[in-house]
Amino acid sequence: MAVAVVSDAEQPHLGKFLRASKAFQPGDLLLREEPLLRLRRWQDALAAANALRKAQLFVPEGESPSMRRLQQATASEADPETALFVRSVVHFNSFGAGPSGREQVVFPTLARANHSCLPNCLVDADLGTLRAVRPITIGEEVTVSYLDDAGLLMDVKSRQKELQERYEFRCQCRRCTSVDDTRRFSCTCGGDQLPERGRLRCQQCERSSEGSELFEAEEKAAKSLEAARSGDLEEEDEGHELMKCHRNLAVKVCSQPVDFVGKGQRHSIPDSTTLHDSLFLGHYDSIVQ
Ligand SMILES: [Zn+2]
Ligand SMILES: [Zn+2]
Which ligand has the nearest atom to the CA of 279? Predict the structure, then answer.
């Protein structure tokens, strides 16, 4: 198999996760599998309880805010124990599918993929496929995003908040542990400009600039993002808002593209437009069905 389900005694927080058994290029298919459960109505879910038990997917142990909410939601069911089990497996392991992403699908192997805000793979829950969106080396952890496209564009704090509330973990990916790349822009000197007291300041050449064009574009982009994440838009409108966000961010403020993948030891931080391209637009083109 091209991916292996493994665990690492030195990194217990990863749980059981996916590791690439060979190298992959963007667009490569790592895995295709049938779902354990494709959920349209809750009544159907209970019938899948046995299959879900056998798969032994992740469910947090002990008390937690999500588990308490799920407990309340299942308390009046005929078989509350089974209902709670199934709901919690779905809550922590499913991917959105169907025309509007409202169906939930649970896969035995894909469910093991951990989240990263800079994922190296993309899941298509309708097809049951896992494809590379960046080059993956042999032995590397295979990651996907639990956040949607708009979610990946949010700043570190908002991403962490959403992941904590929904999935109850603290993301420690490269994007979450370095300076907020959604507010970092490249300078003509090759350094990185960061917002500082309403102005932009380059960390390398220390040049300070007004950056008003950028801040304005950023504000517009933030509004589009908010609209895209409002939850009451059709998929098409969400896409439209995201494109608006992309166009707003594409206002020419960076004269030099930043290497997103990073060279050697140093991980270069992208400017927002590069970030947007790297996260979404680029890889959708490279993926063949
Ligand atoms: Zn992260
Ligand atoms: Zn500079």
Answer: 1
